[in-house]
Amino acid sequence: MEKTAEQLSVERVIAIDASPETVWQLLVDPEQARRWWGLGATFDARPGGVFRMLVTPGNSAAGEFVEVDPPRRLVYTWGWEEGGGGPNVVPPGSTTVEIDLIPEGRGTTLRLVHRGLPSQASAESHTGGWDHYLGRLRIAAAGGDPGPDPWLSGEM
Fold it and tell me: What is the C-alpha separation between 30 and 24, in angstroms, rounded?
């Protein structure tokens, strides 16, 4: 985690055994996203378009797409509509998620930076969330089944 101007960032880099085009579809297509992340999504993947993901019951992330450059770069604002209280208060659209997809042989390196988190507790919470869901994305993109999300059944 990096701290700048009283805000924190989370950065993750993962290797995925799939093409950038395959990973891209899992990031911007609501039906594909449900394979690895959340209960449902409303995406309008164009600058100014809506980003909304029901991550777990009662916890919806919301913002808007800022940059859409298929299949290389995706940027959207992020925050919680519900359930993001306590030390994790991050209002809808108040932070930014940047995702770069870099071709590596027959695979992809995904670099995610979540900027503008307001506190250490919020950064730690989002780090855990990204680690969880990026692991599931890696499996789905490679053609596997990440299985039921244990966060939906309260197992984590």
Answer: 11
CA neighbor of 28 nearest in space, from 42, 12, 48: 42
* pTM, to two decimals: 0.91
Query: Higher pLDDT residue, 48 or 151?
Result: 48
Architecture label for domain 2-141 = 2-Layer Sandwich (3.30)
Confidence of residue 6 (pLDDT cuts 50, 70, 90): low
Contacts of 154 (CB under 8 A, 6+ apart): none
Q: Measured between alpha carbons, how far is 130 from 52 in angstroms, rounded to an integer?
A: 16
Q: What is the mean pLDDT of residues 19-44?
A: 97
